[in-house]
Amino acid sequence: MKNAGVVITGLGVVTPLGLTMEQTWEGLCQGRCGISPIRAFDPAGFTCKIAGQVPDFKIRDYVPKSLRKTAKLMSRDIELAIAAAGQAFHNSGLVTKGLDEGNVTIEPARTAINIGAGLISCDLVELAPAVAKSITDGKFDIRKWGKDGLQAVTPLWLLKYLPNMLACHIGIIHDIQGPSNTITCAEAAGQLAIGEAAQVISRGDADVALAGGGESKVNPIVMLRQCLLKRTTENNDEPKKSCRPFDTKASGSVFGEAAAMLVLEKADSAKSRNAKIYARIAGFGQSNSLNPEYEKLEPDGKGLQIAIEKAIEEAGIKADELDLIIPHGTAIPHDDRAEAIALQNVLGSAVEKVPVFPTKSMLSNTAAAAGALDVVIAATAIKMNRIPAAKNCDQRPGWCKLNINTVEQNKNIRYALCCSYTYGGQTAAIVLKKVEQ
Amino acid sequence: MSQTVVITGIGIVCPMGNDVETVWAGMMAGENGVDKTTIFDASTFPTTFCAEVKNYNLAEHIAKPQLHKHCNRASGFVLGAAAQACSQAGIDIETDEPTDGIDRTGLGVYLGAGEGSVDNENFFNAIVQGWDDRAGRMDWAAWAKLAFGRMQAQRELEQEANMPAGHLAILTGARGPSRSCLTACAASTQAVGEATEMIRNGQADIMLSGGAHSMIHPLGITGFNRLTALSTRNDSPETASRPFSKDRDGFVIGEGAAVIVLEALSSATRRRAKILAEVIGYGSSSDAFRITDMHAEARGAVQAIEAAIADAEINYKDIDYINAHGTSTSENDSIETLAIKKVFKQEAKNIPVSSIKSMAGHLIGAAGASELITCVLAIRDNMLPPTINLHEPDPELDLDYVPNEARKAKVDIAMSESFGFGGQNNVVIIKRFEK
User: Fold this and answer.
1) Catalytic residue among B185, B213, B295, B375
2) Count of Cβ atoms closer than 10 Å to residue A379 Cβ
3) B325 is catalytic
4) Fewer CB within 10 Å: C terminus or N terminus of chain A?
5) Does the predicted TM-score (pTM) go above 0.90?
6) For residue B388, which of B250, B249, B239 has the smallest C-alpha distance?
7) Is B391 a catalytic residue?
């Protein structure tokens, strides 16, 4: 067990179901859905007009006074990540510079950060006045842009959109001076970041790490991309029922925004400070789906299966010892089918008994945040001994043998598996183990 | 036990040439790859030049370009670089039935890679269609009409930063651990370092690591020009990248890809692969200082260098050559020099430090891995690549920057430094391999 010594001691999220983990968990248990018509822009011309949107919040509330002027350098993705990161540290009981400068308990140089981030698309409205200065005969003119338009772009514009800026802002706020990485593997990024952070700790390069993911897909250019790739549902009339993982009426994914952060810590130091331990990171696996149709998972799910098998092997268990699976479950029928095949191959006859809880019907597909959000939910389920009921999974397609958890249940969860994959091919899986305290 | 990690293949596509030997010969001759920008019309931009990859044709490097037909510039470059590196390492590519004896579940990919360019014409014209400048509002339906009508799904997909790694997996059939990271200008050094760790702890036998990036697109140049990070020496592009020079005025942006085959020594020995060097140290840190500036006392840079030296279990005096980040910006070159002085103390002036960005430009996400490749070659040939355009030394910067001409020198241990915007610092140390 390579990550035997790494445990989760803090969780923080902002999601379409709320601005805290408590609200999000309560929402899941009540079967609430965070998907609604898009508010951030008028989606009239879009094939998909709905999204999972985080309730309004003020970023000022999450940034120390001395750094407030940096708020204007924050894109939505950065704001979400900062809001979740502060909660995760607070929840862990560790004290950072950002929480209480006078009573810091982390050692900055021995603290790492590893964030899954998306390709942040720029705010088109912010760019538009500069584009307006660059028109000849009704068309964009690059020569006018170079001369006039460019000068109208705010000087620090680029820094709002570099993916590593999520980690940089969080690192500055909380004074994290150890290794910092930003994983840009789209929908697999969150779990790959958590896996790498656990390895940074287990190899001795840090004692504490903040890991997770943050992204907003509620942006016209990003939403357009997913629509063009035909990954989105066009069922806009009933937002709460539109995202249907592993269901016969599935018609595509619904995208959204969120951030989910975890504090990872060496097990012995967590124990010695009597920290609350959510779970141990017992196994991590990763591989590639090899499909030249890069936006789709391979039909047999092999690359995902390899990642799941590696994670289970590293945890030192057999598949039938799993008590909970949170799949990627995008509600894109082709991909759900391939994922179901991968999971069914891993589970064998255990497929009947292991409950599967897809979360995107309530939380939407939050891309780089999604995999981390699922790990946070699994850790909470372990702590609460409870698995919420899956929503919108009313009728399994013939190819799906998974035991979708359609009724809420209390359960002692000893081992939980989360898995994810992305267009482009990277796959990831994490096994969490309950820690008795 | 931790595995020893060696390098068994290298490949590069960069503004100095499209293969390792051409690039290295150019560097030995002190040439440079900088010229007027041709990828788009930059004639009215504050900076009108850059370092472009030239005469690159993917079909000359691989047999099945049709599997990668929509790929962006960076993905195209990384496929060519990987084809070279895999050929040298003896890794079969583009086949479902490899005969190289390598288990694909032990073969992974870790790139530091960046975004692809937006579809410029349609991206900007959709804004033109939708924006009412007087009212200051966007008509999203008008925007969407043009965008949905003209933008292409695959062209959009290929902008994602994980696509170069995805293409490499298809090329090689890699089923091992795979990631892509983007820590600005430090990304590919971080990728090599983390990939090394994966082999050390037994997650993979072989990792295709390195970087791929092209930010030579209108929004990229706009961003860097607005930050005043780029040189604007438009009347003399070839002398514009002048790291450590008194009159340096910013970096020259380049593009390209570099692939390094990292392998467990046990695997390389079993396969009888030719070993080019050993990776002995990796250090990573963050400044946690400011979004816009490096730490003024070089705190993060010093920490990363010291961590790499400690990881390598060597004395700092053992290092024969430092391949600098050396961007040709006022800030980087001063603070990097300060960091070297703090770590190497009285030895600092005796260790040659050079920046190949003077010749190749700044490959951003691909910079660190391309620079590590020159360290491999420096060890192979006992030759140091120069820092060209260094005719007016900055009195504050008084290290041995190997000015203007390549130099013969015994190199057994070389260190490559990368520092990214926002304060990520990554350092890798390699060593001549001895059985």
Assistant:
1) B185
2) 27
3) yes
4) C
5) yes
6) B239
7) no
Query: Which candidate, A184, A180, A200, places its Cα nearest to that of B425?
Result: A180
Which ipTM was obtained for this model? Answer: 0.98
Question: How many C-beta atoms surround the C-beta of residue B133 within 10 A?
Answer: 13
Contact B284 A303 (CB under 8 A): no
Q: Which residue of A has its CA nearest to B165?
A: A424
Which tokens hold the place of A236? 């806009």
Which of A235, A240, A193 is closest to A361 using CA atoms? A240
Handedness of CA B381, B387, B391, B393 (dihedral sign): negative
Residue B18, C-beta contacts closer than 8 angstroms, at least 6 positions apart: B53, B54, B55, B56, B61, B80
Query: How would you classify the pairing of strands B407-408 and B383-384?
Result: antiparallel
Instruction: Judge: A150–B228 Cβ closer than 8 Å, yes or no.
Output: no
Mutation for testing the B interface, residue in A294, A297, A421 having most B CBs under 10 Å: A294
Distance CA B315, CA B323 (A): 18
Residue B304 CA to residue A200 CA, distance in Å, equals: 14
Q: How far A387 CA lies from chain B's nearest CA (Å)? A: 30
d(CA A212, CA B130): 36
Query: Which residues of chain A lie closer than 8 angstroms to B306, CB-CB?
Result: none
Nearest to B320 by CA among B289, B352, B294: B352
End-to-end CA distance of chain B: 19
Query: What's the CA gap between B335 and B325, in Å, rounded?
Result: 11
Burial class (CB in 10 A: 0-12, 13-18, 19+), B87: middle
Separation of alpha carbons B215 and B213, rounded Å = 6
Tokens of B167: 């293409």
Q: Which residue has the higher pLDDT, A4 or B392?
A: B392
Question: Mean pLDDT of all residues in chain B?
Answer: 97
Per-residue pLDDT tens for B59-86?
Answer: 999 999 999 999 999 999 999 999 999 9
* Number of helical H runs and strand E runs in chain B: 13, 16
Q: Are B376 and B7 contacting, i.e. CB atoms less than 8 angstroms apart?
A: yes
Are A145 and B422 inside 8 Å of each other by CB? no
Q: Tokens at residue B20, please?
A: 């390792």
CB A160 within 8 A of CB B227: no
B158 SS3 class: coil
Chain A residues whose CB is inside 8 A of the B130 CB are: 124, 128
Tell me the pLDDT tens digit for each residue of A371-417.
999 999 999 999 999 999 999 999 999 999 999 999 999 999 999 99
